[in-house]
Design a protein that fits this description.
Among the domains are: 117 residues, no CATH class; 94 residues, Orthogonal Bundle (Recoverin, domain 1); 102 residues, Mannose-6-phosphate receptor binding domain (Cation-dependent Mannose-6-phosphate Receptor, Chain A, Distorted Sandwich). The chain is built from nine helices and 14 strands. Strands 7-8-9-10-11-12-14-13 form an eight-stranded mixed sheet. A two-stranded antiparallel ribbon has the order 1-2. The protein binds alpha-D-mannopyranose.
């Protein structure tokens, strides 16, 4: 019975002319362990059994090595020879399960499923694909070579440019030092002249205000309105009594009037007011004060200063403290200040010119520094073994499905709605992310916009060989974790390497 089963199981494998005799489901490399002249030892060494218990549909070895061609062991693996296509392993549970798994139909030898051998067909297809890929690789490689040559030239140019920029930077810095000194030199007399002019205006304003106070005081004192301030009118202001004896005599009042019995406004303004202004107490007559201020503004002082724009700020006037005209008001209305004199204006123009020159050079220094920084950054980037990826820097590539995805290599990836609107950052350039030995086959972009109740968005870009540079797809395998596929000549390899990757056919 056992022999019969053995024959049945081993039979077809042994009957193929020219092939190495091996039990069903065993790969050529494992054939040596099933020696017809010896008992079989499980691969894990746990047991030795007679050879006729191999593939007898009973699981003897824990590692399933005695049942490579049956489904007796749950953990077994069946080797499909698949001549004409690629050999493969399937789980032994699939042996004789009524489904064709191996293209050579060997897994369904006893199920009556009637599988057809499709290996030749598959092999043909695969070889077709491989041929196409080889074609693409050949063309891609040519382009890649050009990219490398171009990148090398551009890199040299950029290095040269960087040297030039560094030289330029130090020239500009020197020029800036000179211009800074010139600017400071021009600003000194400018400031002095402006200061002098402003000081004069300040003093004039003060005098103007003081003059106005004197008019107010004169009008107040001149009770009978005859245009003179008399001894009696002075005596009415007891605060002007110089001594402490409580008697403000006629004599004392006359002394204040400089010996006269009555004085006019001019005399009062010129010789009396300054002596009494600290003691004098005004009546709260704002109106009188304002009027006299206006009068003054429009008359005598106008001759001193000709202000082009005649807008006199009367609002300010009403704010003048009339409670104590003796207290000098220090507010200087610079808006009404007359133009600077010609000499000062010339100094201002000269200083402004010096400032402009300095600012222009200062901003060109900033531009140069920026350019240096950008170039340094670019030159320090890893653009592949031979800078084959350098051409992508500064460019962007898009693909559209339900969103528009834009990849700007070595920078960032964004997502936006087809109908427009704001852009969502799916990650900024992080690093090359291919597996060991093939690191330039994938890119990683991370730290994108935070996902609601999730991680920051990030994207992996898988690169494959293509004649042109195109993003072929972008998907979101898990929420806010994107996968982009891109074709580029930069990853094309020699066709021989392709064949090795695709198994021997
Ligand atoms: C937006 C897009 C999607 C993403 C969700 C997460 O709709 O960025 O890709 O899955 O936000 O909330």
């Amino acid at each position: 019975m056992r022999f019969h089963l053995m024959f049945l199981l081993l039979g077809p494998a042994l009957s193929v002319a020219g092939e190495v005799k091996r039990p069903r489901g065993v790969s050529p490399s494992n054939q040596q362990f099933y020696d017809e002249t010896k008992p079989f030892t499980c691969f894990d060494g746990s047991k030795t059994i007679p050879l006729d218990r191999v593939n007898d549909d009973y699981c003897d070895c824990k590692d399933a090595s005695d049942e490579p061609g049956t489904s007796a062991c749950p953990n077994g693996h069946f080797h499909c020879g698949n001549t004409g296509f690629k050999a493969s392993y399937i789980s032994s549970s699939r042996v004789n399960d009524g489904i064709c798994d191996c293209c050579d139909a060997t897994d369904e030898y006893n199920s009556g499923t009637g599988c057809e051998n499709t290996c030749r067909e598959l092999g043909k297809k695969e070889r077709g694909i491989l041929l196409k890929m080889t074609e693409v690789a050949k063309e891609g490689l040519k382009v890649k070579q050009q990219l490398i040559e171009k990148a090398s030239k551009i890199k040299e140019e950029k290095k040269k440019k960087l040297d030039e920029l560094r030289e330029l930077k130090s020239l500009i810095e020197n020029k800036m030092k000179v211009l800074k000194t010139a600017k400071e030199k021009a600003e000194l007399p400018e400031n002095e002249a402006k200061e002098k002019h402003q000081q004069a205006w300040k003093e004039l304003t003060r005098a103007k205000q003081e003059g106005a106070r004197a008019v107010v005081a004169f009008n107040e004192l001149d009770k009978n309105g005859d245009g003179f301030v008399s001894v009696v009118e002075i005596q009415a202001h007891s605060e002007l009594d110089g001594d402490e004896d409580d008697i403000f005599s006629e004599m004392e009042a006359q002394v204040i009037l400089g010996g006269s019995s009555k004085i006019d406004l001019e005399y009062f303004q010129d010789l009396v007011w300054r002596n009494i202004k600290n003691e004098y107490k005004t009546e709260d007559d704002v109106e009188a004060y304002s009027e006299s201020w206006d009068e003054l503004d429009n008359s005598n002082l106008e001759e001193d200063y000709h202000d082009e724009d005649e807008e006199v700020d009367n609002e300010d006037d009403s704010e003048v403290s009339v409670g104590k005209p003796s207290e000098s008001k220090t507010d200087t209305n610079y808006e009404n200040m007359p133009d600077y004199d010609e000499e000062t204006q010339a100094l201002i123009v000269a200083a402004e010119d010096a400032r402009d020159q300095f600012i222009t050079v200062e901003s060109s220094l900033q531009d140069t520094k920026d350019a240096i920084r950008n170039l340094e950054k670019e030159l320090s980037m890893d653009f592949g073994q031979n800078d084959e990826f350098a051409y992508m820097f500064g460019k962007c590539y898009e693909v559209t499905n339900e969103y528009v995805y834009r990849l700007c290599p070595f920078e960032k990836i964004i997502q936006k709605l087809k109908q427009g609107g704001s852009e969502t950052n799916l990650g900024t350039w992080h690093s090359w992310a291919g597996p060991e030995g093939n690191k330039y086959s994938a890119m990683k972009y991370d730290g994108g916009r935070a996902c609601w109740q999730g991680p920051n968005r990030s994207t992996t870009v898988k690169l494959s060989c293509g004649k042109e540079t195109v993003v072929t797809s972008c998907t979101e395998p898990s929420r806010c974790d994107y996968l982009m596929e891109m074709q580029t000549p930069a990853v094309c390899k020699e066709p021989q390497e392709l064949a090795i990757e695709h198994d021997e056919l």
